[in-house]
Amino acid sequence: MSTTTKHLVVLGAGTAGTMVVNKLRKRLPATEWSITVVDKDDIHDYQPGYLFIPFRMNKPGQIRKSKRPYLHDDVEVVMAEVERVDAPASTVHLVGGRTLHYDQLVIASGTTPRPDQTPGMLGEQWHREVGEFYTFEGALALRAQLDAFTGGRLVMHITELPIKCPVAPLEFVFLADDYLKGKGVREATEIVFVTPLDGAFTKPMASKRLGTLLTERNITVETDFMIESVDQDAKVIRSYDEREVPYDQLVTVPLNMGADFVAASGLGDELNYVPVDKHTCRSTQYDNIWALGDASNIPTSKAGSVAHFSVDVFVENFQDAVAGRPLSHSFDGHANCFIESGGGKALLLDFNYETEPMGGTFPLPKVGPMSLLKESRANHLGKLAFRHVYWNALLPGRPLGLPADMQTAGKVPV
Question: N or C: which end of the chain has fewer CB within 10 A?
Answer without folding.
Answer: N
